[in-house]
Each structure stands twice: as structure tokens, then as C-alpha cells.
């Protein structure tokens, strides 16, 4: 209802921020779990959340229809279908296998997936940090440029870590 009555937003945001602080502290320091469900409640929670999302989308489309917003209805019409599609995808991909697949087998499948050969160690680094230093190309016989390039190469060799066989990172010293 934030689109219908925007005054609800700051009040709701304040409430949920305070509730986050309180419940996080209670979950970490106050409550001790007396049982472990093994994730059996998670599919129910996801399906109920997606159902509530579907109902809210239909409510908003109905409200927009009452307000005679034809262009908005055209843009909002695919949302319930996308939500239903996503719900069916979640059911097929996660809920059904979790009923039939043992935890040991799921761990083996995840281990096989994680060993993909396309993964790069530099995937989660900024590209600037993975690039080598660029060297200007110049065909003159300038001795200062030659000295700068030699110093740059020496610094690059000193700063690149070298892994020896024992797993200890060592640096080259000249």
C-alpha cells in the first residue's frame, strides 16, 4: 500500500529498522534454538511470500484499474504472470528435489558444480586491480625514459609475490 498512501513508508521503515535491531539481538544472544527443522519450513515460507506478492500485485492492478490508469495497467499486467512463473520455477528447481534428495547427495552435487573450470580467481576483483602497469611505447633514445622503465620493471618484480612449495608467500629482493 506504499503506492496508494506514501505516508506509510517512513512509519513502516522506522518500525522495521527498530524491529531488525531488536530481533537480531534476540536471535543472537537471547534465544537458543530448541529444535532444527533442517530447512523444511523454508519452501512453505517462500511459497506463502510469493502468494502474498501475487495478491498485492493483483490488488495494485485493481486499484490502478479503478483510477483509470490504462498505461500503468499495461506495464503492470506481466507482473502476476512473472510471479507465477517464478513460483513454479522455485517449486521445480528447489522444493521437489528437497523432498527426494538426501543431504549427502546434495553436497556431492554442489561440490561438482563448484569445480567448474570457467571460474577465475580474479572474478570478484575490480578490473583496475588485476591489470598490469601500462608502459608507454616510445622509440627515442631518451636515457631518462629508459631509467624509468627499468625502475618500473624492477618494482614490478619486487612487488609480485612468489609462492614457494611450502605455501609461504615470499618477496623477491634484489
Structure write-up:
The protein has 174 residues and is mainly α. It is 64% helix and 2% strand. It has seven helices and two strands, in the order αααααααββ. It has helices spanning 8-30, 42-66, 70-76, 78-100, 103-114, 127-130, 143-159; strands at residues 162-163, 169-170. A two-stranded antiparallel ribbon has the order 1-2. A hairpin with a 5-residue loop joins strand 1 and strand 2. Helix 2 packs antiparallel against helix 3 and helix 2 (42-66) packs antiparallel against helix 4 (78-100). The radius of gyration is 29 Å and the shape is extended. Mean pLDDT is 78; it is low at 163-174.
Separation, N- and C-terminal Cα atoms: 68 Å
Approximate shape: extended
Mean pLDDT, nearest integer?
78
Question: Which strands sit side by side, in order, in the main sheet?
Answer: 1-2
| Helix fraction by DSSP (H/I, runs of at least 4) | 55-70%
Secondary structure: elements and pairs:
Layout: H1 8-30, H2 42-66, H3 70-76, H4 78-100, H5 103-114, H6 127-130, H7 143-159, E1 162-163, E2 169-170
Antiparallel strand pairs: 1-2
Summarize the structure.
The protein has 174 residues and is mainly alpha-helical. It has helices at 8-30, 42-66, 70-76, 78-100, 103-114, 127-130, 143-159, and strands spanning 162-163, 169-170. It has seven helices and two strands.
